[in-house]
From TrEMBL:
<keyword id="KW-0611">Plant defense</keyword>
<dbReference type="GO" id="GO:0046872">
    <property type="term" value="F:metal ion binding"/>
</dbReference>
<dbReference type="Pfam" id="PF00168">
    <property type="entry name" value="C2"/>
</dbReference>
<dbReference type="GO" id="GO:0006952">
    <property type="term" value="P:defense response"/>
</dbReference>
<keyword id="KW-0449">Lipoprotein</keyword>
<dbReference type="InterPro" id="IPR010734">
    <property type="entry name" value="Copine_C"/>
</dbReference>
<dbReference type="InterPro" id="IPR037768">
    <property type="entry name" value="C2B_Copine"/>
</dbReference>
<dbReference type="InterPro" id="IPR035892">
    <property type="entry name" value="C2_domain_sf"/>
</dbReference>
<dbReference type="GO" id="GO:0005544">
    <property type="term" value="F:calcium-dependent phospholipid binding"/>
</dbReference>
<feature type="domain" description="C2">
    <location>
        <begin position="28"/>
        <end position="164"/>
    </location>
</feature>
<dbReference type="InterPro" id="IPR000008">
    <property type="entry name" value="C2_dom"/>
</dbReference>
<dbReference type="GO" id="GO:0071277">
    <property type="term" value="P:cellular response to calcium ion"/>
</dbReference>
<feature type="domain" description="VWFA">
    <location>
        <begin position="343"/>
        <end position="562"/>
    </location>
</feature>
<keyword id="KW-0479">Metal-binding</keyword>
<dbReference type="InterPro" id="IPR036465">
    <property type="entry name" value="vWFA_dom_sf"/>
</dbReference>
<dbReference type="InterPro" id="IPR045052">
    <property type="entry name" value="Copine"/>
</dbReference>
<dbReference type="Pfam" id="PF07002">
    <property type="entry name" value="Copine"/>
</dbReference>
Length: 579
């Protein structure tokens, strides 16, 4: 825990949580927290969503009285299997129930979370039994409905009315309407609550022989099994045994709750990375708030001896909270509810290195069996997620690196063949335009990204000038390394000021090492030919082959950072949702 800083420069910068980092919190994620969440299966933005349910016009299946409905919530996996997430209480004698039981689930932007809702009439003989113990096959099925979670949370009021239907299991056909189900989604406020604290210590003990100590604070959360996950670190204060650090910012979502235990450790900074522990205390946010209210300090402790049986020695040094303030920061879902949309755009590589589309070894080969090629898979999987965030589902779609019939090589042509407009209808429209283009263009080269990025940037710029509340996402699918690297960098640096993100999928067996230069996650922030640095990271790159057989799909790898890039854009421009 004490070796978290390996050099002077790194050690004297805050690693998440200081005032400067808070202002750019979306561009500076905390690696320790992200890795912890990824180890739990969360790969990108995640928010806790509370679902509430009510129904109307249910079928009456009881002879003497009305039905006694209970709702069961499922999530449908990629293999079609249903996983039960929870059950409501039973509402007695009602065809228009409003269930009290809520269900909280984790919303993940980068996946399509298909939900299934089934309503049952619970037989009278089971009314005294726990709903968890009920055998559903013994209850009468009143109806079911399905939708994606993203369909609900993109509605202005985050509610969706679904038609319930019953299924005729003998003919696999849906029967008449069986009433309506209203599902309401609310983002848990803890997902948005941020705590600002100004911390100081007094009367720390000397750790350096020839100078005063150089203290910094490391704040960690306690996880199952007693382990510590670092979530925040202050800057180093030079030569001071009574340090006052810059404000730190903690998100309740990172911690769990205000009652969750935190470990606050004060270290003396050493340039060799072996920092000396000067004292520590286990304390919760609630207890820190009490310290602030009372103006009192909390004692720091050190283990008196090594081993599990050692006791903690109380030190003279104390920890004080000079400021404690809670605030709610607008979330990604707030902007969606406020009318923001994500607009999907696609650019496809038609350079000759893809191979003859008529031959099975080509990356553009259309398999008669219907098995999609890598280009079709990338379009389908990314589009499947993003389509829910685009209300008109009209997608600008281009090709590059090909020669249209009787024309010169084009590095940005409309995939639908039109010379007037570039949009197609829906994901199937993209697929149709793609397969049609393969019959109407000759593959050529070289691989140039600049023109398609400039076209996407022009659309984003026009939308911005017209006051549009839109954020654009360009998917580029390519089989080779970009030829116009500097021109591409210039276009990306210019586009970094616009509401635009670019997702790049590399298909085939090429060496994409140079492509990673465009993704700031894997290198330095982009710089254009005149020395101007990109205002933010707008590129995500992933080689398709890296994630084909793994647990994380290409969609998750690509989309994981998109909400963060969106928030970086709107927060840096002080754009607020219309809520």
């Amino acid at each position: 825990m004490g070796n978290c800083c390996s050099d002077v420069a790194g050690g004297k910068m805050a690693v998440g949580g200081t005032a400067s980092d808070h202002l750019n919190s979306a561009s500076g994620p905390n690696d320790a927290v992200d890795n912890f969440l990824r180890s739990r299966g969360y790969n990108g933005l995640f928010s806790q969503i509370e679902l509430s349910f009510s129904a109307s016009g249910l079928r009456d299946r009881d002879i003497v009285s009305k039905s006694d409905p209970m709702l069961v919530l499922y999530e449908r996996g990629k293999n079609g299997a249903l996983k039960e997430l929870g059950r409501t209480e039973v509402v007695l004698n009602s065809l228009n129930p409003k269930w009290i039981t809520k269900h909280t689930l984790t919303y993940q932007f980068e996946t399509v979370q298909d939900l299934v809702f089934r309503v049952y009439d619970v037989d009278t003989q089971f009314h005294n039994a726990s709903v968890k113990m009920l055998k559903l096959e013994e209850q009468e099925h009143l109806g079911e409905a399905t939708c994606a979670l993203s369909e609900i949370i993109t509605k202005f009021d985050r509610s969706m009315t679904l038609d319930l239907h019953s299924e005729d299991f003998t003919t696999s056909t849906q029967s008449r309407n069986c009433g309506k189900l209203l599902v309401y989604a609310e983002e848990c406020v803890s997902s948005k609550t941020t705590i600002e604290m100004t911390l100081r210590c007094c009367d720390l003990e000397y750790r350096d022989l020839f100078s005063r100590s150089d203290p910094f604070l490391l704040i960690s959360k306690v996880v199952e099994g007693g382990g510590h996950i670092p979530i925040c670190k202050t800057e180093v204060i030079k030569n001071d045994l009574n340090p006052v650090w810059k404000p730190v910012f903690l998100n309740i979502q990172q911690i769990g709750s205000k009652e969750s235990p935190l470990i606050m450790e004060c270290y003396n900074f050493n340039s060799n990375g072996k920092h000396d522990l000067m004292g520590k205390v286990q304390i919760s946010l609630m207890e820190l708030e009490k310290l602030y209210s009372s103006g009192q300090g909390g004692n720091l402790y050190l283990s008196a001896a090594a081993g599990h049986n050692s006791h903690n020695k109380m030190l003279k040094g104390r920890l004080y909270v000079d400021k404690y303030a809670e605030s709610v920061q607008y979330s990604f879902l707030d902007y969606l509810a406020g009318g923001f949309e994500l607009n999907f755009m696609v650019a496809v590589d038609f350079t000759a290195s893809n191979g003859n589309p008529r031959l099975p070894d080509s990356l553009h080969y259309i398999d008669p069996s219907g098995r999609p090629n890598a280009y079709q898979r990338a379009i389908s999987e990314v589009g499947e997620v993003l389509q829910y965030y685009d209300s008109d589902k009209r997608f600008p779609t281009w090709g590059f690196g090909a020669r249209p019939i009787d024309g010169p090589v084009s590095h940005c042509f409309n995939l639908n063949g039109s010379s007037h407009y570039c949009e197609v209808e829906g994901i199937q429209g993209i697929m149709k335009a793609y397969t049609s283009a393969l019959l109407n263009v000759s593959l050529a080269g070289p691989t140039l990204f600049g023109p398609v990025i400039s076209n996407a940037a022009m659309i984003a710029s026009q939308s911005l000038a017209n006051g549009g509340r839109k954020y654009f996402v360009l998917l580029i699918i390519t089989d080779g390394v970009v030829t116009d690297l500097q021109e591409t960098k210039d276009a990306l640096v210019k586009a970094s000021d616009l509401p635009l993100s670019i997702l790049i999928v590399g298909v085939g067996g090429a060496d994409f090492k140079e492509m990673e230069i465009l993704d700031a996650d894997k290198g330095e922030r982009l710089e254009n030919s005149s020395g101007r640095v990109a205002s933010r990271d707008i590129v995500q790159f992933v080689p398709f082959r890296d994630v084909q057989s793994g647990e994380i799909s290409v969609v998750q790898a690509l989309l994981a950072e998109l909400p963060t890039q969106f928030l970086t854009y709107v927060r840096s421009r002080s754009i607020q949702p219309s809520v």
